[in-house]
Amino acid sequence: MVQPMTRRALWMHKIAEQIEHSILARITDGTLAPGASPGKREALAADFVTSGSVVDLAFESLLAAGHLEQGPGGTLVVAHGPQPSRQFEIPTADRLEDVQAILEMRLGLETVAASLAAERHSEAQLGQIRKAMTDYETAATEGQGAAQADFRFHHAIATASGNSYLSDLLDHLGPLLIPRMRVALPGSASETGDANLQRSVEEHRGIVDAIAARDAEGAGGAMRLHLNRSLGLIRQLQQ
């Protein structure tokens, strides 16, 4: 009798499909030409907040479908045969709608998480939250890795809530949310505005200050303000 896949195994396959579709879209639009590398295993794992074994699943599927082939030295490269149809592309509007839906869900969950973190955090957990905040500020200033640093900040707060269901859920959301944010939102400072970036940094600091002061109501309110502003940006982009 075939045993059903575990929830974790199902989720890993879901992430592998996202990686596969991302690579396929870049092959389709010509970003990845025949003979080009589909991307380094470690870099893709970092981008999608997952493990190298999940990236391998995506590579195996693309190889079996003929979109990748063995290159020099056994490395995987984009196949030189017929390229896939553009029907595989996902419209940007759909991506924005997905980001909005996930943010709406996070709004309720993370507001509670911030309030609980204010009440329950240990000093070690507060230190992790502060470090995550600093890492985000550094990444935002340098213009590289901000999405991943932002996720670690929110995850540290969920962990400090003392509710493992909240942190587990963010573990699942991370791979889904971050790639979509990366491909759907404007990429340059001129598009999003330096004021937006600075406001995000200030909002993070406000959340941390409330958590450190064990102000549950203030922490929840600061998190709600932060996520609501992100929702507002997504809605503006959809118009």
Automatic annotation (TrEMBL):
GO MF, one example: DNA binding
Pfam families in alphabetical order: FCD
Protein origin, superkingdom: Bacteria
Keyword check for Transcription: yes
InterPro entries the record matches: GntR_C (IPR011711), TF_FadR/GntR_C (IPR008920), WH-like_DNA-bd_sf (IPR036388)
Keyword Transcription regulation carried by entry: yes
Keywords carried by this UniProt record: DNA-binding, Transcription, Transcription regulation
Residue intervals of the GntR C-terminal domain: 101-229
Gene3D superfamilies associated with the record: GntR ligand-binding domain-like, Winged helix-like DNA-binding domain superfamily/Winged helix DNA-binding domain
Name of the protein in its database record: DNA-binding transcriptional regulator, FadR family
Organism: Antarctobacter heliothermus
